[in-house]
Write a structure and sequence with these properties.
Elements: E1 3-9, H1 15-25, E2 29-32, H2 48-57, H3 60-80, E3 85-89, H4 91-101, H5 106-113, E4 121-126, H6 129-135, H7 152-163, E5 174-178, H8 183-195
Parallel strand pairs: 1-3, 1-4, 2-3, 4-5
Helix pairs in contact: 1-8, 3-4, 4-7, 6-7
């Protein structure tokens, strides 16, 4: 039986780092990410900057549909893998919150949510937006509200707007971990929660 383990939070919370570290502690696992289709051999994009520019060129509703198709692909591939534990990096939460902040139709987003299964456990990485901004080495246009030349102040302003949209999600089996704590502590707390499944 598949166990869906979601690690989510705002941009810069440390989701990818934590997911990769979890995979070294819990085996075997399958990591599912929205980037899976975009990093495949058949992708239309050469770099993450190409993806960023494409996302910024789309309209709000067309963009949320594009992101949903990429998420569905990653989930389908994860379920086909036969691995019992599937680590969902961000899942739809971060992306749909951002899309609602960017003007996507609430009706469309809520209908798309219904097509995705609820994770068995969701671990939300809590961090201040200002600290997240400091952690970011590269700030994309998308995570800054589609600004042409993103900077930390754009990132902070947009992330504050997007954070207000997280209340659209049912928080079933959610746990919050403060990622201002040392990385080893965050990893150990997360692994303990996962091991209870």
């Amino acid at each position: 039986m598949n166990r869906l383990i979601c690690i989510t939070g705002i941009d810069g919370a440390g989701k990818s780092t934590l997911v990769n570290n979890i995979a070294t502690k819990i085996s075997p696992v399958y990591i599912a990410s929205i980037w899976d289709i975009m990093n495949s051999a058949t992708t239309l994009f050469s770099t993450k900057k190409d993806i960023d520019n494409y996302l910024c060129a789309l309209t709000a509703d067309s963009r949320v549909l594009f992101l949903a198709h990429a998420l569905k692909y990653s989930l389908d591939k994860a379920l086909e893998s036969g691995k019992e534990k599937i680590l969902l990096n961000s899942y739809y939460y971060k992306y749909f919150a951002a899309e609602l902040a960017l003007g996507a139709s609430e009706k469309l987003v809520l209908s798309l949510i219904k097509t995705f299964p609820q994770p068995d456990i969701t671990i939300y990485l809590d961090i201040s937006i200002e600290e997240a901004a400091e952690r970011k080495k590269i700030i994309s246009r998308y995570e800054s509200g589609l600004i042409m030349y993103p900077a930390k102040d754009n990132f902070i302003a947009f992330q504050k707007t997007a954070l207000n949209k997280w209340n659209y999600f049912e928080k079933i089996n959610w746990h919050t971990i403060n990622t201002s704590a040392p990385p080893v502590q965050v990893l150990n707390e997360t692994v303990k929660l996962i091991e209870r499944l």
